[in-house]
Amino acid sequence: MRYWLDTNVLLRLVTKSPPELFERALALVEQAESGALSLAVHPLHVAEATYVLRSLYAYTREEIRRELGIVLSLEALAVHDEENVLAALDLMAERNIDFDDAYLTCWAAARDDGVASFDRDYGRLPVPHLVP
Questions:
Q1: Which of 81, 106, 77, 69 lies closest to 91, judged by CA?
Q2: What is the dihedral sign for C-alpha 32, 36, 40, 45?
């Protein structure tokens, strides 16, 4: 059976705290590595994890890219839309923007689409931008 990871499991794997919950999360990953079950990650929970890591744990965007990127790259995890998720982590760190804006940029650009937004920051991102 496939299980979708909630944000709290991602956070335990990234922060390694509290230690007892990290160990339980790690054991879950090991079960997936053994083939006993499969684990998946949705971009919505990646977005929530980036927000929590910045606001509660005071991670920099670069730290988030590195640490969350390591977790999301585990072979035991199937990341939905992995290419855009990882590209968005890079864009978030490189352009100093929020993950949700970076992900929308990557998602739209991958489809040769643009983004309509009142946020003028999109004008400096690699996607066509329309201000309503």
A1: 106
A2: negative
pLDDT in tens, 40-55: 999 999 999 999 999 9
Q: Is the peptide bond before 132 cis (omega within 30 degrees of 0)?
A: no
Query: Domain 2-130, what architecture?
Result: 3-Layer(aba) Sandwich (3.40)
C-beta separation of 37 from 2 below 8 A = yes
Q: What does the alpha-carbon distance between residue 16 and residue 32 come to, in Å, rounded to a whole number?
A: 18
Beta bridge partners of 79: 41
Stated pTM of the model: 0.94
pLDDT tens digits, one per residue of 25-83: 999 999 999 999 999 999 999 999 999 999 999 999 999 999 999 999 999 999 999 99
CA–CA gap between residue 101 and residue 40 (Å, rounded): 22
